[in-house]
Amino acid sequence: MRVALELRDFAKYPFLKESQQFMGRNTDIIEEFLCSSPGKIALRHAMDRVRAALRSPGQQDDMRDIPSDNLGVKISVSGYVLARIIVSCTKDRSLIERLARYEAQRAFRFLIDEEEDKRVFIAGSIGINSAGADLPVIQYVEIVAGLHEERWRLVNRDVWNGRVRVSPVEMNELLREQVRVILLRQLPLSVPETVCGLLLPQTGEIQGLFQQTMLEQFGAVEEDSFPPCMQSLMAALTGGTNIPHAGRFALTAFLHNIGMAASDIIALYCRAPDFDISKTQYQVEHISGRSGTEYTAPSCAAMRTYGICINSDALCEKINHPLNYYRTRKKKEKKQESGGSTGTSQS
Ligand code: SF4
Q1: Which of 309, 313, 319, when mutated, tests ligand 1's pocket best, judged by the most ligand atoms within 8 Å of its CB?
Q2: Which atom in ligand 1 lies closest to the alpha carbon of residue 309?
Q3: What is the average pLDDT score of the chain?
């Protein structure tokens, strides 16, 4: 069934081919567009979009501000395009993933309020027949590949006649995931160096902001709160002991995940006896996401398999990931500090 999209829908769902058609064939060279008045407004809009993507989902409350006039919608869709260009220029996989997740969540918020016909039409545009209450097994498995909750595992699903039953709420969640996967697949865009050069102030600001967001999430890096395994790896490194590849990988990914800058991680490896600057730089940047994949530190189960779960303590029994250990310890210490300062002022 063909559904007529309204002007506002192009701003709500800029990834649809109809939205791109609405923008028409743009003969402007992107460098010229960026220097024009509409280009500057679109760039501001793009930056708002990327900044919103860096905030946690609960704080992304500006998503309902949708223009309804022709110019406003064009600027909104251009902002979507420029936001993708900006994160592509950073070549930072974490930023790219944040933007894809934000765009999917943004579309999802609009989608759940749409009339059934329009929702089904938009779902169809991204390859999902959401009119029924089930999906073919193959499609279901492809969509849920990035969803790690137990409820999505095929063994926990009601499968009948080659189809997986899905509730209406779950169908919406799968639509969101499908948007995320499609957008992620398209990124990073291949952007000419000249364009990235023009966008250097924006990419610099975004990278700085992202670093700050990570620090806010985990706070300043505090070695005292590291889990025993990471403390041991750090001690081995400081003591001039060569650590095995799995240990280097786990430590680098962990330090990157808690917000340590690549340059600081490299500086840390200077202490290793076999330090080789170019090799270390390549490895650290690869693990930090320059290669296109951002790595997460291994779980405790994987650390055990590699034989680098060392000196586990009581807290280790309550967590399943070194990052959880670090988060928990930091929270606990912060609580103790605020309790301690209250005590001091009262005495
Ligand atoms: S249980 Fe996990 S956090 Fe604790 S030492 Fe082992 S790997 Fe590290």
Answers
A1: 309
A2: 6
A3: 84
